[in-house]
UniProtKB/TrEMBL annotation:
The chain crosses the membrane at residues 34-56, 62-85, 118-140, 146-166, 178-197, 217-236, 248-271, 291-311, 332-353, 359-381, 402-426, 446-468. The keyword Transport applies. Residues 1-25 are annotated as: Disordered. The lineage of its organism: Bacteria, Bacillati, Actinomycetota, Actinomycetes, Kitasatosporales. Keywords: Membrane, Transmembrane, Transmembrane helix, Transport. Belongs to the purine-cytosine permease (2.A.39) family. It is found in: Membrane. It comes from Streptomyces longisporoflavus. Residues 1-12 have a biased composition (Polar residues). It is a multi-pass membrane protein. This is Purine-cytosine permease family protein.
């Protein structure tokens, strides 16, 4: 077997790129998805999400907790459902997407997905560098300066490269054990943060409007599961086909839902008593200021580690997505190229831009629409029972089974474009109410006012594709045996 297609063990470089994993190399169990999505969501970025629900959506703590449960568990149940395609086809999500959109038509969704990954990585890297700067200040009384800022960015990026560069087996191992370590640290920190809550203000906060709850669910879903929906298959592709689909969905929902509900609820609690977290340009320092001085070092270590757990997953997926786009380099080198862009983004956020959460919120809002459009098309295609031809996925020439019409599968591509347009009609995005980057003509309607442009995109994409997509061009691959049939049992 060629080295480029061999599976590797923990601590060695994964040489497989986007080639489908054969059944002989499948291994693992559904529980791996629990640790994968737990790792992706133990970072402190969940706290400002909760802060936003109270400060900008007007919710009280009970409404914020409800929003966290529905938004987090629901969106990651969707991530788990979409990851079933990886178990079935053995390839990354955007590589499998070639079968739906065509070899050329898949370029649009793949490019958007890559931009999403780079954006998340930049935000995570920036926050982690803030944590490391604060740690140096507390431990060694070192003042922040431009040199230290760049150094902290490089340290975090080097840690990300070490894990993501080694690849899938190492990531799966680290997800479990490092998550336990940083998860416990986070629980300790959260316990002390709860002690700082001004309960009189929290309990006196009136309930917000129902529209705020609806908008909050949309915001949390868009900021958590929707952002990972196009990466689930990347981690499920090594799993045996015979694993029941319902186990993957359950593991994904609970793996992400547990830490997210805790963090979002805590962010809501803190902000109900002190709104500074929601408006801080440096969330790490804002949270650190709420803790006793002796808790600073454990907190900052937990913050750094949690962000690293999320970032190495995003970077791994970004490397696979770049290869799917046509970058002809080994997977590990694709990761290297990605972290260079991540570093430049971190420099911009930390040394040039003067606002952190404004661009963060606008970024989530805008990219959620085309990603949601892709979800709608892919979900309907999966429900129709598509089989994936490994040779067809990797053949990008005119002889490919997935070349269709000039490289485009027109029903899927047109459904995707139509759903993006529909979603943007209801979307408003910008760093703040006084600085709007984009506002669709229907942004003042109920769907628009409640931030549901992404949900419109899912529904329209799925409906248009269901109406005009047919079943696609059949492949010559044999039907799977009943024991391996892709079902959610």
């Amino acid at each position: 077997m060629d080295a480029s297609t061999k599976n590797v063990s923990v601590g060695t470089v994964e040489t497989r790129g986007i080639e489908p994993v054969p059944d002989s190399e499948r291994h693992g169990h559904a529980g791996q998805m629990f640790w994968t999505w737990f790792a992706a969501n133990i970072s402190i970025l969940g706290l400002p999400l909760g802060a936003t629900l109270v400060a900008f959506r007007g919710l009280n703590i009970w409404q914020a907790a409800l929003v966290a449960v529905v938004g987090a568990f629901g969106s990651f149940a969707l991530v788990g459902a979409l990851s079933l395609a990886g178990k079935k086809g053995g390839a990354p999500a955007l590589t499998l997407s070639r079968a739906v959109f065509g070899q050329r038509g898949n370029a649009g969704p793949t490019l958007v997905s890559w931009l999403s990954r780079v954006g998340w990585e930049t935000i995570t890297t920036t926050t982690a560098a803030y944590a490391l700067l604060a740690l140096l200040g507390v431990a060694f009384d070192v003042d922040r300066n431009n040199f230290l800022t760049v150094l902290c960015l490089l340290v975090f990026i080097a840690c990300t490269l070490l894990i993501s560069g080694l690849g899938h087996a190492t990531i799966m191992w680290i997800n479990k054990w490092a998550t336990v370590l940083f998860g416990v640290l986070n629980l300790v920190v959260m316990g002390f943060l709860v002690a700082t809550v001004d309960w009189s203000k929290v309990l006196a906060t009136p309930a917000g409007p129902t529209s705020g709850v609806v908008a909050g669910i949309g915001f949390i879903a868009a900021g958590t599961g929707i952002g990972w929906a196009n990466a689930g298959a990347d981690y499920a592709r090594y799993l045996p086909r015979a694993i029941p689909g319902r186990r993957l969905i359950t593991a994904s929902a609970f793996g992400a839902g547990i830490p997210l509900v805790l963090l979002i609820s805590l962010g809501s609690l803190l902000t109900a008593g002190d709104p500074s977290l929601a408006t801080s340009s440096d969330p790490v320092s804002a949270i650190n200021a709420m803790l006793p001085s002796w808790m600073a070092i454990p907190y900052l270590i937990a913050a750094f580690g949690g962000l690293l757990m999320s970032n190495h997953l995003s970077t791994y997926s970004a490397g696979l997505t770049m290869i799917t786009l046509g970058l002809r380099v080994p997977r590990a080198w694709a990761v290297v190229i990605d972290i260079v862009l991540m570093f430049l983004g971190g420099i911009y956020f930390m040394l040039i831009a003067d606002d952190f959460y404004g661009p963060f919120s606008a970024f989530l809002t805008l990219l959620a629409v085309p990603i949601s459009a892709w979800i709608g098309v892919i979900a309907v295609d999966m429900m129709r029972g598509r089989d994936y031809d490994p040779d067809g996925l990797m053949d990008t020439s005119r002889t490919s089974r997935y070349w269709y019409t000039g490289g485009f599968r027109l029903p899927a591509v047109l459904a995707w474009v139509a759903s993006i347009v529909s979603g943007l009609l209801f979307t408003t995005a910008g760093p703040g109410s006084d600085d709007v980057w984009f506002a669709g003509p229907l942004a003042d309607t109920w769907f628009g006012a409640n931030g549901l442009g992404w949900a419109v995109a899912i529904v329209v994409g799925g409906a248009v594709y269901a109406a005009f997509g047919g079943r696609g061009r059949p492949t010559s691959t044999p039907a799977p045996s009943p024991a391996l049939e892709e079902t959610v049992r």
